[in-house]
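In the current project phase, work has continued on tokenised descriptions of protein folds. One protein thus recorded appears below exactly as we store it.

——
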Amino acid sequence: MENEEIVQVNCPYCDTMIDNTAERCPNCKEWFVIPSLKNFKCVSVPVYLIAAALCEAFGLRFVYGLLWGAINFNGFLKISNEKDIKKFKVLFCLFTISICLSFAFKICLISDIVLEILLSYRMLRIIEKYTLKKYNSPVTHHEVGMIFFRTLYVIYYIDTYAQRVKDPNMRYCWNAEKWIKYFVILFIILTVLYMIGFISIPFINFPVFELQ
């Protein structure tokens, strides 16, 4: 497939001459397309909450985070530079090994947390460098959110990507309606898992239905 021919056209907003492939006018800063990240899958926060809770209920800690990384492995490679590709691959391999070892040695759960933080940071830096190069938008992440939520934070970061690119100072992208929905979903998941006996909640002692 041949590359699209680049020609000069007038910006429909300020009449400045720009390339026909431009996604944003360099003069008036108006957007012609919605900024997006292609090749990424399973970027739904509710899906993560459900999948991660089920994995946790079966004692498969961090497994969904690893699975999500595997599903989107090529997506990150496609937007990475050569240096970040090497770092990303090494961290992903170490995270995989650590999770496998943690099934036999519980002490490895500490390394799981540390490696997921480092891997999440590398994913975010890959996205930020790509965004600066493609959209000239210096998006940044929130360190505390990344440390506490790790893979979930990366998913939410991608889910709110368009907002972040248009306003790089919007580090939280807080949407009360969305977060209320997320908390309701999480509450329902935990209640169901508790009722069927998959999890226990301290100080709460309601009858549960034991699986045969």
